[in-house]
Design brief:
Strands 3-4-5-8-9-10-11-14-15-18-19-20-21-23-24-25 form a 16-stranded antiparallel barrel. Strands 17-16-22 form a three-stranded mixed beta sheet, with no helix packed on it. Strands 1-2 form a two-stranded antiparallel sheet. The longest helix has 9 residues. Helices cover 2% and strands 61% of the residues. The protein contains one helix and 25 strands. The chain has a single domain, classed as Beta Barrel (Porin).
């Protein structure tokens, strides 16, 4: 889910955020030097797609220092998700009864516009421990658990950061992994490309993911900081969405039935991510720009550009207009329907999905973040944004939605 990030008013703090450093302040207690500065954040996100999905997310995070060399972070996220989601089937007057997505009680798809109802909750917990081994070397260990009605994920990672002697550069290396269990709400998965009328079902699917990252960040000058990361991910196992289906239809979209989708059992990804933060002279205004390139073995190649401009009006008020442009190619096995003159399909067909998330898509986001400083160590953040998505050759129409977040942060010495 989306995680709210602090907007830094000083370049040094912006650079520190890029470098992944945590600021700590020493205080004297019982004759010993302890670093016991703590920060607490609580947040709320509301996301709604008209006539589709509604998401309410509640977030809490606490981080602080246990000693002059050790820091900890604890996070908690609780989601409630309701509404309906596209199944991948063509909208039609014919309906097929299916088990609803994510714990729903069941329903029909087809006449309802190719959607299925769902109602689910998710609880996620994460924790990390950072340690400074030497003045210029730090490590971080992290772990997380995410549980919902039909999906369980357990993972973790380890990273090492090394500064140069003048601290102008920081180099990062990280390894991570996760184990996921995937199924429908009744703990089953359908046979790939089987007819939804008489499908064979199996038990839960499992997926293992391995990640690695190499990065570099630098303070270019007193007003500018930058970073670049290259990451690689490989996942093996069950990648199919057990709820999604695809219509078998002719060239005029006359549907002869539906089959459950099928995706490859492996996926390899490469991601290049760059970011630049710059303070405008004599204004205390900050400009940030990032670019992300993603390519994978499914040919879901994408480009993401994000921009933000922050400026203060008086000492307690900070405004940040921001924008995001995202474009992706369709997966190499994506197809709107399986072309056929009857319910039978070509035996040579191995993979097929009409999931709109795998279609060619252009997404544009525009919004505004407002921060009010309640004290020297506290703030309230509000974020409001509009997202518009445009699909190419998909079973859903272009759509747009508004979302907002609220975040309350407080530091304690």
């Amino acid at each position: 889910m989306a995680v709210t990030k602090k907007i830094k008013q000083q370049l040094t703090l912006a650079a520190s955020a890029l470098l992944g450093h945590e600021a700590v302040e020493a205080v004297e207690k019982d004759g010993a030097s302890l670093y016991n500065s703590w920060n607490v954040d609580v947040g709320y996100l509301h996301y709604k797609e008209p006539d589709r999905i509604t998401v309410d997310t509640y977030m809490a995070k606490i981080n602080g220092s246990l000693s002059d060399k050790d820091t900890v972070k604890l996070g908690l996220v609780f989601d409630t998700l309701t509404g309906s989601t596209p199944t991948g089937a063509l909208p039609s007057n014919d309906s097929v009864t299916v088990t609803s997505a994510s714990g729903g009680s069941g329903g029909s798809v087809g006449g309802g516009g190719g959607t299925a109802p769902f109602d689910d909750t998710r609880l996620a917990i994460d924790a990390s421990w950072g340690h400074e081994w030497q003045r210029l070397i730090r490590s971080n260990l992290s772990a997380y658990v995410s549980v919902e009605g039909d999906y369980t994920a357990i993972g973790g990672g380890m990273s090492i950061e090394k500064d140069t002697q003048d601290k102008a550069y920081t180099f990062t290396a990280a390894l991570g992994g996760s184990v996921d269990k995937v199924s429908r709400s009744d703990e089953t998965t359908p046979e790939a490309l089987s007819n939804t009328e008489d499908a064979i079902f199996f038990g839960k699917g499992s997926k293992n993911t391995y990640d690695m990252l190499f990065g570099m960040s630098t303070v270019i000058n007193r007003r500018t900081a930058a970073m670049v990361n290259l990451s690689h991910s490989r996942s093996l196992g069950y990648h199919t969405d057990p709820y999604k289906m695809i219509s078998v239809a002719d060239a005029d979209d006359v549907s002869y039935g539906t089959r459950y989708e099928s995706r490859p059992d492996n996926r390899e990804r490469y991601i290049l991510y760059t970011k630049l933060v710059h303070e405008l002279p004599k204004s205390n205004h900050h400009l940030d720009f990032s670019y992300r390139y993603h390519t994978d073995s499914w040919d879901v190649n994408s480009h993401t550009i994000e921009m933000g401009y922050s400026f203060a009006t008086r000492i307690k008020h900070l405004f940040t207009p921001f924008g995001r442009i995202y474009h992706q190619q369709a997966a190499n096995f994506y197809q709107r329907t399986i072309l056929s003159e009857n319910i039978e399909i070509d035996d040579s067909l191995e993979f097929a999905s009409s999931d709109p998330r795998l279609a060619e898509m252009l997404s544009v986001t525009a919004g505004l973040k407002y921060q009010y400083r309640t004290s020297a160590t506290g703030s309230i953040d509000f974020r409001l944004a509009y997202i518009h998505r445009q699909y190419e050759d998909a079973i859903v129409y272009d759509d747009g939605t508004v979302f907002f977040t609220v975040d309350l942060g407080k530091g304690f010495d």
